[in-house]
Amino acid sequence: MNIKNLVKGILVGCSVILISCHQEDAKSDTLTAAANTAMDPLPSWNEGLAKQSIIDFVTKTTKEGSADFVPVVDRIACFDNDGTLWTEMPLPTQLYFVIDRIKTLAPQHPEWKNQQPYKGILEGDLKAAIAGGEKALMELLVTTHAGMTTDEFDKTVKDWVATATHPKTGKHYTEMVYQPMLELLDYLRENGYKTFIVSGGGIDFMRVWAEQVYGVPPYQVVGSSTKVRYDTTGAQPVLIKLAELNFNDDKLGKPVGIHEHIGKRPVFTAGNSDGDYGMLQYTTTGSGPRFGLYIHHTDAVREYAYDRESGLAKLSKGLDDAAKYHWVVADMQKDWKKVYPFDK
Amino acid sequence: MNIKNLVKGILVGCSVILISCHQEDAKSDTLTAAANTAMDPLPSWNEGLAKQSIIDFVTKTTKEGSADFVPVVDRIACFDNDGTLWTEMPLPTQLYFVIDRIKTLAPQHPEWKNQQPYKGILEGDLKAAIAGGEKALMELLVTTHAGMTTDEFDKTVKDWVATATHPKTGKHYTEMVYQPMLELLDYLRENGYKTFIVSGGGIDFMRVWAEQVYGVPPYQVVGSSTKVRYDTTGAQPVLIKLAELNFNDDKLGKPVGIHEHIGKRPVFTAGNSDGDYGMLQYTTTGSGPRFGLYIHHTDAVREYAYDRESGLAKLSKGLDDAAKYHWVVADMQKDWKKVYPFDK
After folding, report:
1. Half-sphere exposure of A318 (CA within 13 A, CB side)
2. Side-chain half-sphere of A45: how many Cα atoms within 13 Å?
3. How far apart are CA A329 and CA A294, in angstroms?
4. Hey, is the C-beta of B204 within 8 angstroms of any chain A C-beta?
5. Does any CB of chain A come closer than 8 Å to the CB of residue B196?
6. Which of A240, A244, A248, A259 to mutate to test the interface with B (most CBs of B within 10 A)?
7. Which of A57, A90, A218, A275 sits most deeply, having the most CB atoms within 10 A of its CB?
8. pLDDT digits over A249-294, tens only?
9. CA-to-CA distance for A189 and A17, rounded, in angstroms?
10. Interface list for A 270-289 with B (CB within 8 A)
11. What is the pTM of this model?
């Protein structure tokens, strides 16, 4: 059990977004999207190689009689979450959840004021908080993610996403999803693809809001997890989240997570960092038509620009090998007409 | 890692069926079923409490405005496999697969003739084969289920189900599925329910044929599993099945497996043994309308009769507590008009 990797997954490499639940807005967005799709399935993508490659691929794999036709049962599409479907900068959203939870719980723990890693979190000194390394990170994780029932955790996440906002934009985290990717999810689903999230982030954290935000139901979310235990000692049987790693869904773990949860090699996969290299490779080395998409963060004005030097979400090996594997690299600055649904 | 439980799950408590793949037959069956459903959604169920309870439940949970209405996103139905969807006697199907694999591989292993547990398998003396206990069972499991790629395993299972037949009926194992349960799966799906298999049997074993036989895609199959490793050393990256338990999806593991794979408490669950007690309990102790169904094997003529004294699939605690949890116990002899699709 390498808890270090889970902690890393959550505190460094993960990426998860939170729910704002403006259902009315969502509905009108959907209607607009549907109307647009009739004309252009990807209206927020600029014309170019990335957009055309996607449309060509979906067209040829769904056209009966095409040499590249893929039966509906095999139309599996996987998406990383942090940095692929929503913003993961300046810190992954799930880390903000950890920080806010510590602050919320602090009044019940006066001793935290003088005790790391809590002291650092409470004083806004993240560096001091994580100076204790793996042990400190593990303590934060356990305090915020374990020792409660799954229902209690769900409610905590739900309440948090309804109120928490991004430090730069002031928007709810679930509003900071990429409009071009929402269109891509819709476009694939309209063409018989099943869309899955395959993220290093926490599976229980994502499942709370993924259906409403992305249209991806809980059973199509793959992520990192701690073990749970079925407990029948109380009045009602519950599942309790334990402080023990169950699965680390990152890097070479992603193809494994895909196999465990989906049981089929995907046809289409999108990611944005070297943590997604394994699943893009697993996808596109299968026989028949396959599509690998990298989202390249090139837009420091509308979002964030980072790749080879990023400590949080490095994209280096993926760029080096994109041509070799025929992966399409979407340039956010050039390929995306808008980034967020709220952009004009 | 309790490999003993996995082995038990596979060699004792599991239940999985194999594919015959008569696609033409399946198609005409489906058409007939669809025609029947228009009049009676469960034509192979006799009128009675079990049938009426199911229909009442589906009706009230899908009627807009009903106090018991369940939104489509929450309509999760889970089914055990062995003994619930197909026959698990005289031995669980997956055990026949193990036996046949050993026989197939034997010519490459002349030493097996004098070496247990192989000797016993080859001579038809199962008792001698498993006299070595856990170690012997583990060896059989490893030899037949690990040390190969997932693609190789899939092909092996696929080839086997296409040819293997049940010792009593001579039918393909995938023909020995319960017609009333196929109708129930269809009926639930037609009413917006997502149907999942939650079995102690091997997840990779079931996924090969579950879609064709039950209409349940691989990502809606939950089962026991060994670990897999993503391997990039060869020309094409592959997933290799390892001789190490990953998850034992039986008894108290079933609610855990449901949480890991589905992420929601089911609304409807069907099982047939005490191995399913936990998931029925987890299901029916949730708030709002819930349904727990036990299939009681009472028909020694058309199938097999077993319950409290069964070593393979004991149903005792489930019968004791059925009334307490308001579980419906379907009596195969009385409640089922026919057992198999091929019955007249």
Report:
1. 29
2. 22
3. 5
4. yes
5. yes
6. A259
7. A275
8. 899 999 999 999 999 999 999 999 999 999 999 999 999 999 999 9
9. 21
10. 278, 281-282, 285
11. 0.89
